[in-house]
Design brief:
This protein is an alpha+beta fold. About 20% of the residues lie in helices and about 15% in strands.
């Protein structure tokens, strides 16, 4: 049988050993392991030990060795409710990080802002349609925690 190169496109390096066609067998790789062929020949390896249920005395002695457990203490922290939010920052206890800080206020345009601008366009005041976007009373005020940025709520003017 003639050896052929499995990878003809790969150049062979004269300093490197040739690449074998077949990997080494398990017995060659791990000589101390039991031979795989022994099972096929009828020889068996070590038999697993059968399961024997533990006797009642062993179980009781194990239970007696355990230390007595103590009941766990559960702490319930009652947070004060979030006060009514207004157009300005207010002092709030955060339900997420439990810090008592002044809220961070973000003013955003709302549907009311867009409706006022549309109404000004319909009336014919095209130049004045951007005025509602500069007036804070036409916008919503969102309150956030300064520490963890958790959302508290929204204040909208009426």
């Amino acid at each position: 049988m003639e050896k052929t190169n499995m990878y003809p496109e790969m150049p062979t390096n004269p300093g490197m050993p040739p690449i074998p066609d077949v990997p080494p067998s398990y017995n060659q790789t791990f000589p101390t392991a039991p031979a795989v062929n022994n099972i096929a020949e009828g020889m068996t390896g070590p038999q697993p030990t059968p399961y024997k249920p533990q006797q009642q005395e062993q179980q009781q002695s194990f239970i007696q060795q355990l230390p007595p457990t103590q009941p766990q203490q559960i702490f319930i922290q009652n947070l004060p409710p979030i006060p009514p939010l207004g157009p300005r920052p207010c002092l709030v206890t955060c339900p997420s990080c439990y810090q008592r800080k002044v809220s961070n206020v973000v003013i955003e345009s709302s549907m009311r802002t867009h409706m006022f601008a549309l109404a000004l366009c319909v009336v014919g005041c095209f130049c004045c349609s951007c005025i509602p976007y500069f007036i804070d009373n036409c916008k919503n005020v969102n309150h956030y925690c300064k520490n963890c940025n958790a959302y508290f709520g929204m204040y909208n003017t009426k």
